TrEMBL record:
Protein name: Quinone oxidoreductase
Superkingdom of origin: Bacteria
UniProt-recorded Gene Ontology molecular function terms: mRNA 3'-UTR AU-rich region binding; NADPH binding; quinone reductase (NADPH) activity
Domain Enoyl reductase (ER): 11-322
SUPFAM superfamilies per record: GroES-like, NAD(P)-binding Rossmann-fold domains
Gene Ontology CC entries for this record: cytosol
Annotated keywords: NADP, Oxidoreductase
SMART domains: PKS_ER
Length: 327
């Protein structure tokens, strides 16, 4: 019998329990897959902690995974047993050895891209695509501020924005991350624990401010990010690693005619056509080594609690994934 991580009650990481589960046969339009790797995201932490109440308990967390198709339901003609696929599924269930999934959500993985790389970059890379092309269309010469520049999304944002010709300013929380950030496309790097990043951004841009600020930190950086914007600049708040942003007076946007968004990758990619466009762009960037997720921390599926603690520490580089042993 396959096993999965089951959350019976919201709370600390220790509430993630590895236990046997029953996996049904695929119904028409569904596939059954055996996972090889599973992505770990801050969304998972928000669900586990109880900040988000979007998973019915007891339930299996996780919204993205990579695996091999082991069974195909009736009516599925574009996929076959043995195909290597990835997915993002808002219905959760990824923290498992095996699962059933709607066939329409499966994405075929091109040859030459490793399962671990896909698990580490699918949701994060699609998030980067949405932020750089949909939320604010970055142009060559734009000043771009990326917080947590050596984190999972931050790494991809920095590399991709630099490739587009933007001038990227990255913030990091320790000295040893500064050189790493420079190596992935940040023209300037600010160690925000010992520098006032707002003052430094205005110094770097000679008072212009940035065209766009990408902020997944939340409470600790939100007002500072807003202060870094130039006239008509945009702030994309797409996470809250330091906690939720307090209530905000929209009139604060008026003096510089700024704009603010809290984007959802699922809504931006809600159509099949848009999703396929973004996935193709991501896989091309990975295949061409323009995007290089060089720091991937792996944990066995049974040790999901440790993976959550690692992500919550905000001290790691790059992405965290879970790997599933071959039966």
């Amino acid at each position: 019998m396959p096993s999965a991580i089951v959350l019976h009650e919201a709370g600390p990481a220790g509430n993630l329990i590895f236990e046997p589960v029953i996996v049904a046969r695929p119904q028409p339009g569904e596939i059954r897959i055996r996972h090889t790797a599973v992505g770990v995201n801050f969304h998972d932490i928000y669900v586990r902690s109880g900040l988000y109440h979007t998973l019915a308990l007891p339930g299996i967390p996780g919204i993205e995974g990579v695996g091999i198709i082991t069974e195909v339901g009736r009516g599925v003609e574009h996929l076959n047993i043995g195909d290597r696929v990835a997915y993002i599924h808002r219905g959760y269930g990824a923290y498992s050895e095996e699962r059933v999934l709607p066939a329409a959500e499966a994405i075929l993985i091109p040859e030459g891209i490793d399962d671990a790389v896909v698990a580490a970059t699918l949701l994060k890379g699609l998030t980067a695509w949405v932020l750089l092309h949909e939320v604010y269309a970055v142009q060559a010469g734009d000043w771009v501020l990326v917080h947590a520049a050596t984190g999972g999304v931050g790494t991809l944002l920095s590399q991709w924005a630099s490739h587009l010709g933007a001038r990227v300013i990255g913030t990091v929380g320790s000295d040893h991350k500064m050189e790493l950030a420079r190596g992935q496309g940040c023209e300037y790097v600010i160690q925000y624990r010992r520098e006032d990043f707002v003052a430094r951004v205005h110094e770097i841009t000679r008072g212009e401010g940035v065209h766009v600020a990408y902020d997944a930190v939340g409470k600790d950086t939100f007002m500072g990010s807003l202060a870094c914007l130039g006239p008509c600049g945009h702030l994309a708040n797409f996470g809250q690693a330091s906690g939720p942003v307090p209530p905000f007076d929209v009139a604060a946007l008026f003096p510089k005619s700024n704009s603010l968004s809290r984007p959802s990758v699922f809504l931006h990619l809600r159509t099949t056509q848009k999703l396929h466009t973004a996935v193709a762009a991501l896989f091309n960037m990975l295949g061409d080594r323009i995007l290089r997720p060089e720091h991937i921390t792996t944990f066995d599926l049974a040790h999901a609690a440790q993976a959550h603690r690692e992500l919550e520490s905000r001290s790691r580089l790059g992405s965290v994934i879970l790997t599933v042993r071959t039966q």
